[in-house]
Amino acid sequence: MAATEAVRRRVPRERVSQTRQFVIGGAEGTLTTGTQDDGQLGEIFLRIGKQGSTLSGLAEALSIVTSLALQYGTPLDLIAQHLQGTRFEPAGLTDDPEVPEVSSLLDYLGRRLAIDFPYRD
Predict the structure, then answer these.
(1) Is 2 inside a domain boundary?
(2) Which residues contact 115 (CB under 8 A, 6 or more apart)?
(3) Is 6 contained in some domain?
(4) Is residue 76 a contact partner of residue 70, using CB atoms and an 8 Å limit?
(5) Cis before residue 90, ω within 30 degrees of 0?
(6) Are 45 and 18 a contacting pair, CB within 8 Å?
(7) How far apart are CA 95 and CA 70, in angstroms?
(8) Which domain range does residue 110 map to?
(9) I want to staple 102 with a disulfide (CB 3.0 to 4.6 A). Which of 38, 57, 73, 108 is the partner?
């Protein structure tokens, strides 16, 4: 079986982005999303916790991996589906009326992205 080379679709140098502040169980964070020319999600930047903390480092790593997955063609709905329902701290009430309570940061991310970028063919 011949291996096929994955093709990366980088986001354009100038792109539309949106930054959303959020609070989960008292922990403050921001989610920035950047889109491709066609409006599809192309990258995320997730920031939470104190710089240098474990939570901050994991959020940064998740941002990189998620952005690469999107740019290599992984469907957003598949990513969002697998993030939702994960359970760990921070968790609990949020200040987001569309996602009022979550079981983890990943649960929030999956649910928020599914709302902001609904599935389309």
Answers:
(1) no
(2) 98, 99
(3) no
(4) yes
(5) yes
(6) no
(7) 27
(8) 17-116
(9) 108
pLDDT digits (tens, 9 = 90+) for 14-53: 999 999 999 999 999 999 999 999 999 999 999 998 989 9
1 confidence band (pLDDT: 50, 70, 90):
low
* Angle ∠(65,25,79) on CA atoms, nearest 5: 25
Q: For the full predicted model, state whether its pTM sits above 0.70.
A: yes
Residue 121 within a domain: no
What is the count of structural domains for the chain?
1
Please, are residues 24 and 91 in contact by the beta-carbon 8 Å criterion?
yes
Per the listing, tokens 């990513």 go with 79
- Burial of residue 19 (number of CB atoms within 10 Å: 0-12, 13-18, 19+): exposed
Residue that has been written with the tokens 């599914």 in this structure: 114
Structure tokens at 61: 């790593």
- Does 95 fall in a domain? yes
